[in-house]
Amino acid sequence: MTAKIAYDDVEVGAELPARTFPVTRATLVQYAGASGDFNPIHWNEKFAVEVGLPDVIAHGMFTMAEAIRVVTDWAGDPGAVVEYGVRFTKPVVVPNDDKGATIEVSGKVAAKLDDNTVRVDLTAMSAGQKVLGMSRAVVRLA
Amino acid sequence: MALDQSFVGRSYPPTDPYEVGREKIREFAEAVGDTNPAYTDPEAAKALGYSDVIAPPTFVFAITFKAAGQVVQDPQLGLDYSRVVHGDQKFAYTRPVRAGDRLTVTSTIEAIKSMAGNDIVDIRGEVHDEAGEHVVTAVTKLVARAAEEG
């Protein structure tokens, strides 16, 4: 494993480059196919509303996959991620229009740990709401 | 009704091996819009020290969640899947998943809690490769929401 960021060069509090990820209905259909999660709450508006949701929502695992890109792009080696966990606090609501929704992700180094690893705390927002809680990754640096 | 605590610690038989394909990884990476070449270009993956393309960190969920179906659908446990939402997800990796891996999953019920009428089940999926080496542990928290009154 060869992360492009050196452990010795990183300080607690350092911010990772923030990213904004778009998500449309087409994105969700594609993710459903790739992941095998065909739950209709992710593509069928009528079904979503019937079970009490405001509209079709993104797969929590899609949001989780987007959020970690802030870490993997920064570290340079996706295989350097040692641990990754999130809590799904609010759904990402994806309206059926041209714009869809966006997921805004930022991250910062929260702690330097043993064995050249650091803990990165992530924040993921959509439509002004925090959509992931306790979103943390441990990544091994060079 | 609260779930039976005696199910805590119960393990289910390992799944049949899932063979990870390069094109399945590519399909997943494209679906999440991630153009990192380690997912699609074997040479780029080799430059990072891997024998073949690796999978994005959350890729393995599709495999562990399918395995967790043994727990979810266990009629003795009696989880009401129509009320289940995904509460938390965690992964702890020994190494990344890579193309060519033949992965088996052993699912264990790690915890059962009842809070405000909700049933909360933590399922741990231990993922091993063909050589029996640990690859990743996935812990999935499922919340079966309380049935509405009346």
From TrEMBL, chain A:
GO terms for cellular component: fatty acid synthase complex. GO terms for molecular function: fatty acid synthase activity. It comes from Streptomyces olivochromogenes. SUPFAM superfamilies: Thioesterase/thiol ester dehydrase-isomerase. It comes from the Bacteria. PANTHER family: (3R)-HYDROXYACYL-ACP DEHYDRATASE SUBUNIT HADB, 3-HYDROXYACYL-THIOESTER DEHYDRATASE HTDX-RELATED. Belongs to the enoyl-CoA hydratase/isomerase family. Residues 19-119 form the MaoC-like domain. One of its GO terms (biological process) is fatty acid biosynthetic process. This is MaoC family dehydratase. Pfam families: MaoC_dehydratas.
TrEMBL record, chain B:
It comes from the Bacteria. GO terms for molecular function: (3R)-hydroxyacyl-[acyl-carrier-protein] dehydratase activity. Residues 6-137 form the FAS1-like dehydratase domain. Pfam families: FAS1_DH_region. SUPFAM superfamilies: Thioesterase/thiol ester dehydrase-isomerase (SSF54637). GO terms for biological process: fatty acid biosynthetic process. Belongs to the UPF0336 family. This is UPF0336 protein PU648_23495. It comes from Streptomyces mirabilis. The lineage of its organism: Bacteria, Bacillati, Actinomycetota, Actinomycetes, Kitasatosporales.
